[in-house]
Specification:
Layout lengths: L3 H16 L3 E9 L5 E9 L7 E3 L1 H9 L4 H15 L8 H4 L8 E7 L4 H4 L4 E4 L2 E8 L9 E3 L2 H7 L3 H12 L5 E5 H9 L13 E5 L12 H11 L3 E6 L5 E5 L1 H5 L3 H15 L12 E4 L4 E4 L2
Antiparallel strand pairs: 1-2, 2-3, 4-6, 5-6, 6-7, 8-9, 9-11, 10-11, 10-12, 12-13
Helix pairs in contact: 1-3
């Protein structure tokens, strides 16, 4: 069995051979969240404005297991390219219209300690053990990654500073039309069946995220959304579990006062879920948080 880089080189060469000289085929290692590196083949036809990244990590895993060979991997890469290709003459405003950048800035939360190297190269703002970072949302016609992370060297080109990015990103975070707060059974019901009892011991649980559920843990910064959650649950303070970078689990803080081991148990739940169920690049934190409506602040509870 060949290594990953040799696999990528062989697949890229065969894709190039099949497509012809009008196409440029590149291999790229792409840094992701939490020090994870993804591996992609990038195919660009002459005059294409942008080109999709076709990730091959899953293909390589299937190759190692004997479930795919080079020929089938090449076929899947080419099929994915044809589905995702944007076409000639289309450009993302990120590259062509610097005056429109601010309207497309979005924020996302990542773990500070797990992204020390990445944070050296990107504008960010610290928040407890997390960092708010910024990305430019891609237009709907693109089916690649939904956002492109903003790096420090782009700020000078655009004439934007971190404060400007924060202001633009927070407007979207605080927009009620982008917030999703649902009971846990509404979220999990379709997978658990109509008769599933998601009420547990009567403790209300909510999922807080963005509409679409993408990088929605950034709502941890949204005081209005957290206040709305206290209204729904009927409590003045909340316990917040970082399910992933995409969503938060909201609980009333009342039980914490009754059971000294409650927070310890919740931390253990977070740790177990992170280590067994969450993709490595989607882990947000191993801590449990508390929100107080009285102070309007989020703190680390445990």
């Amino acid at each position: 069995m060949m290594g990953l880089q040799d696999f990528m080189e062989k697949v890229s060469a065969e894709v190039k051979k099949r497509l012809g000289k009008e196409y440029r085929v590149e291999r790229k290692n792409i840094p992701k969240n939490n020090n994870v590196t993804a591996h992609a083949v990038i195919i660009r036809k002459q005059d294409d404005g942008i080109a999709p990244c076709i990730y091959v990590d899953n293909l390589y895993d299937r190759y190692l297991k004997g479930d795919a060979d080079i020929s089938s991997a090449v076929g899947e890469v080419m099929h994915s390219y044809r589905e995702h290709a944007v076409g000639p003459g289309i450009n993302i405003p990120l590259f062509t219209d610097t005056g429109d950048i601010i309207s497309k800035v979005r924020g996302r939360l990542i773990n500070t300690e797990m992204n020390r190297c990445l944070l050296e190269d990107i504008p960010h703002r610290g928040f407890l053990d997390l960092s708010l970072v910024y990305a430019v949302g891609l237009p709907q016609y693109s089916r690649m990654d939904r956002e492109i992370l903003i790096h420090n060297d782009q700020l000078d080109i655009w004439g934007i500073d971190e404060a400007g990015l924060y202001e633009a990103a927070y407007k979207k975070i605080d927009d009620p039309g982008t917030v999703s707060l649902k009971k846990m059974d509404e979220v999990l019901g379709p997978w658990m069946g109509e008769d599933a009892d998601m009420r547990g011991a009567g403790c209300p649980m909510y999922v807080l995220t963005n509409k679409g559920g993408h990088t929605g843990a950034v709502q941890l910064l949204n005081k209005n959304a957290l206040d709305s959650a206290t209204d729904h649950i009927g409590t003045d303070s909340l316990i917040i579990l970082p399910s992933s970078v995409h969503e938060l689990i909201i609980l009333p803080a009342d039980k914490e006062e009754e059971d000294p081991g409650y927070l310890k148990d919740l931390v253990e739940i977070v740790r177990t879920v992170n280590d067994t169920d969450v993709l490595e690049q989607e882990i947000l934190s191993y801590h449990v948080y508390r929100y107080s409506r009285e102070t309007g602040e989020v703190t680390i509870a445990a």
